[in-house]
Amino acid sequence: MSNYAASHERYATMTYNRCGRIGLKLPAISLGLWHNFGGGDAMENGRLMLRRAFDLGITHFDLANNYGPPPGSAEESFGQLWRRDFAASIRPAVGGRRAPCFRRWRLSS
């Protein structure tokens, strides 16, 4: 577990837009993890980018199974970094996938 503490100002500094019928709030800027999080990239560099992005209010991270290089390594790197720095602050939504409206929410977004 890391000693990272997110900026308390992170949501005040970013513009968020509502999307879809349920009004999901997404930041005006997302962080794409295409070539900066692959197997050949330094994990510490990726960690610093994720922390800075999160501190600036970026809560949407673009990943794909072919991002790397090699393909798929960006997802693995992101997972390792996220688990170490952020996972302790994540709580499942009330009801999670068992919530009565989960399917409707997912389909309407």
TrEMBL record:
InterPro entries, sorted: K_chnl_volt-dep_bsu_KCNAB-rel, NAD(P)_OxRdtase_dom_sf, NADP_OxRdtase_dom
Gene Ontology process terms (BP): methylglyoxal catabolic process
Domain NADP-dependent oxidoreductase: 29-84
Gene Ontology MF terms: oxidoreductase activity
Transferase keyword on record: no
Alphabetized Pfam families for the sequence: Aldo_ket_red (PF00248)
Keyword Ribosomal protein: no
Domain of life, per lineage: Bacteria
UniProt keywords, alphabetically: NADP, Oxidoreductase
Chain segments annotated as transmembrane: none
Family named by the database record: Belongs to the shaker potassium channel beta subunit family.
PANTHER family the record matches: HYPERKINETIC, ISOFORM M (PTHR43150), L-GLYCERALDEHYDE 3-PHOSPHATE REDUCTASE (PTHR43150:SF4)
Protein name per its UniProtKB record: L-glyceraldehyde 3-phosphate reductase
Originating species: Paenibacillus methanolicus
